[in-house]
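Incident log entry.

Two folding requests arrived from the same account within the same minute. Monitoring flagged them as a possible duplicate submission, but the sequences differ. Recording both here for audit purposes.

Request one:
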Amino acid sequence: MQLLVVTIDAVTDLIPQIYEAGSGQSSWDDVMSNLAQRLGAGGHLTYEEVKNPAHGKSSVISNKGFAPEVLGRYFEHYAGCNVWAASDAMVPGAVFTSSMLYPDERLKRTEYWSGWLRHVDVFYVVGGIVHDDSASRTKVSFVRPERGARFDAHHRRLLEGFVPHLRASLSAQKRLAQSRSLLTPLLNTLNELDQGIVLLRSDRTVVHMNDSARALLRGQSALEVKGARLDFASAEWNEQFRALARPDRQLARSETVYLRVRAAGGQMLQATLMRLADDVAGPRHLVLFIKQQRSDNAAEVALRKLYGLSPTEAQLASLLAQGRSVNEVAQARAVSIHTVRSQLKSVLQKLDVKRQVEIVQIINGFVHRFEP
């Protein structure tokens, strides 16, 4: 019988696929089946074995050739009869053939053979323990029937080159799953908020959009999602987004710009675009906060009635109380900073104060009582 000789060079194209499988971009079954085919294996099995049954059950990561009910019997009983796994020689990170772990001529005398291997037509195996910690261990096996040839040193060397990649990819997959389990409650909370929130990458790809944002943007042309990207109809918005997301800008703290747009039906949308600091969410991630601007802000109404401020002056005072700077107000209104400073001077005179902070104190201490 001609033996199959496989070299690492013949299967290096599978290494990127291993990492794609770990990140969820491709199927573990596809990657491992490709490797099994090049090894001349009839089937394969990769699974995570939980050491303490009280902490969960063993789970299959990849499988070809083993029916679910057959695997169920293995985990329930025959895993404890596995004469190969019982060998002291089987240590994490190393690759073995079954012939190295237990003599082939004695295999048929074991319960493992008569109760399980014989029924799944498996006699030869090459594999090992990919990962082992206090909670679980991950094992990988490629199998052949008795009528096939033994796995040899060529196959062991090939898998020895693959095991570090398998370990790294499976570990990344587990960390990703843990992150998602932590992230899910946060995303659920975001969906409960009235304010629209959109998490974006620097190329405008939408990472997450809460339900309120979807509702506010539904039917809008000023802001809309096309494919997986957020599109701004305004040239000014596009320019401000590009400036904030510029790749050569390194941010140690978050930066913010404020935008306003008249949306469908005449309603005004007020948006705050914030670029997160690079050490918060990775480089160049941005958050867009969207809300429907109130047509008649109670604080502004009170300022106009009590102090005789014009609508523009009352809005300026309200924005300053919200933490906006004079520059930001000028930018949002698309007017010069000199115009805003002139309006601010008038506000100070009408409120009979000398400093901007006193405007904030008046609004926070008195006018906000008129807010519903």
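Request two (distinct sequence, not a duplicate):
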Amino acid sequence: MYRSRLLTPGPVELHPKAQEALSRPQLHHRSDAAKKIFLQARAGLEKAFQTQGQVLILTGSGTAAMDALVLNLFQPGQRVLVPVQGNFSERWARIAHEAGLEVVRLDLDWGMVVRPEHLENLSGQFDGFLLTHSESSTGALNDVQTLAQTFKARCPEGLVVVDAITSLLVSEFELENWGLDAAACGSQKGLMCPPGLAYAALSPRALQCLKPRSFYLNLGAELKVQSSGESAWTPAINLVAATAAVLEELLPRLPQHTALKKQQNDILYTTGDQLGLTTVPEVKSPATTCFYLPEGLKYTQVKDAFAARGATIIGGQGQLRGKVFRVSLMGYSDIYDAYAVARMMRDALSFD
């Protein structure tokens, strides 16, 4: 018998504070108690994003926040630069296209990171730069701070909008100090809560650029009510309570927590190296490992080997489907969990 382990880059193992919050009686979302929790969650999120602007809580997945930022910050026909080097950066391009923007793709091999020199030969001005910080489909981490500086040297009026869905609370992140204007995140990743909430962070500059063109994802409407602890539509208030509880516990020791996530990931990558596995990312994100499948093995064999030991892992997406597997300790875990999972990798991949 093995205990169940969720080793995917979202959803993740829940934080005990989230589980405790979710076990409480149902709140009415317009009650004074709910408003207090909502404001507490928003204040914690502003600290997590390191912003002097606003963080809006939406009911939906992290993709809802991405969609909301595009629909509220850009108008049809505006020109945006979208580097594509994985499944989630591809999602930025699709969202922008659906929103009627002129999308200029910068296609890179999946697993690579975007570098300042990739921006050198571009022509014309851009109204926006849509970036993925942690591309969890490949395990790659982009230096969004340097990329934002490079972009704004060329397009000072352009907005830099970042997918921070698997980087917030997992690696260092600062909105304004890094030259970023807006960012998206979701509850089921580094926050260690269940899926269901999206967070849209807006810098003071981005707040001045809002031109909403969505009904449900109208950030202007949300701004008017969220400052008083409510939302425009019925929120997943239980998840808001879980968000507030986890942030209260996590924020005072955030540097130690992000250092732990990196150390855990390093242990798994070291084990992979010792097993002769080939890593996918050029620069590793602490959110997840990503390895090419050993020669001669199918993903189903690897998945089943982990499942036989109580663990759920995940395979590749898009053009990496059937070619890679990913193991993540982004959820609630400690350093000894990393050593246990490293041993599990050795056992699971011993097919002799």
